[in-house]
Amino acid sequence: MNEEDNIPALLRAVSEALDPAQIPYELILVDDGSSDNSWAVICEQAQSEPRLRGLRLSRNFGKEGAMFAGLAEARGDCCVISDADLQFPPAVIAEMYAVWKSGAADVVEAKKRSRGKEGLVYKLFTKAFYGLLKAMSGYDLNNASDFKLLDRRVVDALGEMPERQTFFRAMSSWVGFRTETVLFDVRERNSGKSKFSPKKLVKMALSSIASFTSAPMQLITFIGAVSCLLSVALGIFTIFFHFPRESVEMLCAALSVVGFLLSLIMIALGILGYYAARIYEELKNRPRYIVSERTDGR
Question: Can you give the CATH number for the domain in which 148 is found?
Answer without folding.
Answer: 3.90.550.10
